[in-house]
Amino acid sequence: MAGNTGPLRRQVERALPDRPFTIELWDGTRIPSTRHGPTLRVRSPRAIGHLLRAPGELGLGRAYVCGEIDVDDLDGIVALLGRWSPPPLGLGRRLRLGRAAWRAAGLARRPKPPAAELRPRRRLHTKSRDAEAVRHHYDVSNEFVALFLDQTMTYSCALFEEGTETLEDAQRAKLELICRKLELEAGMRMLDIGCGWGSLAIHAAREHGASVWGITLSEPQAELARRRALEAGVEDRVEVRVMDYRDLRAERFDAIASIGMVEHVGEKRIDEYAAKIASVLEPGGRVLNHGITYVPAVRGGVHVGGAFSNRYVFPDGELLNLSRMVLAFERAGFEALHVENLHTDYAETLRHWTARFEGRLEEAERLAGAERVRVWRLYLRAARNSFETGRNAVYQLLCGRPLAEGARAFPSGGRREAPRRRVPAERVPA
Q1: Geometric angle at alpha carbon 19, from 14 and 25, rounded to 5°
Q2: What is the pLDDT of residues 337-377, one digit of tens each?
Q3: Cα separation of 327 and 10, whole Å?
Q4: Do residues 276 and 251 make contact, with C-beta atoms less than 8 angstroms apart?
Q5: How many of the other CB atoms lie within 10 Å of CB of 136?
């Protein structure tokens, strides 16, 4: 049975003298904010149990996923990420907070983690562990992701250039941009690493006459991609396999696209990844690597996600600095031909996804359960916030091996496209 929350409230007020949020406890008492902000509702003493078991981000995330903590303004809470940091707490303060929380919660035992949590136990970035991590995120169900994706089923940032009126338009513009950068022509053989539900493979085959081999670690993705290729009438030019990139052997391709895949590779294997791509690309071929990067320079060129993301959203996900990504491809013998940042486009894409998802929460809960829905509601907003605050970017890195553009006596710049006119940053309500 829960005890007196008075000592806990006093300890929180002392530990957090600056609080841009209100905390409302299960007994109706409140810890008021010191400035305007959202309200966190602690619905049960079990929320305190989660925080005692795993103080910090992970415990808070567990309580949220279980529904023991709720907020009146999820966008407002996410907006605080990166803009407010709690002050450092000394050992004495942490002990006093812990004692007060334990007495207030009155729990006989600490609660178990939510069922939606994944804790892989194999060695990092082995084939089996990578497959488990990827499937945890992508195999929530094809029907679930279709609730917020557009008709192309493209799960990466769209391209909001002039003339794009809908999310579908913007996704098709992005697919076409990739094909133009790769200079696809009829009869060319293309590899799509991390092909998802087949949108790029189908576009490349239908609009450019390419023969495409897509690989993914998700069988549900592959099954739907094959069906969509059949419906699009390009089943003779699109082959989708459940396969790890490390298992590529004697195959050869004229062009290679890796869209939203590099985040799962890891810094320890990024050089191996680039070398594998080089080993299956024909001389003069091009590769386009499209992936999310971490903008602030960090030691080793890699940022590992926090505890909540690693357990619930993207297990084992790693975001490289752009410099580390370029270095890997240079080490593999590539030359960077073009680099483009689409981070404002990704923020806009996530606004669309969030709006679509929020409009179908009841159906989402039926398909995946309340815990997964809460994870995805938070994830979509936090991802958008990371692009809006400049913490993350998404780069398209185009490389050739060897140099794909020959020397000219009088360089004309004719191969360089004029800058695109972009639409305003915000198209749908945040």
Answers
A1: 80
A2: 999 999 999 999 999 999 999 999 999 999 999 999 999 99
A3: 52
A4: no
A5: 19
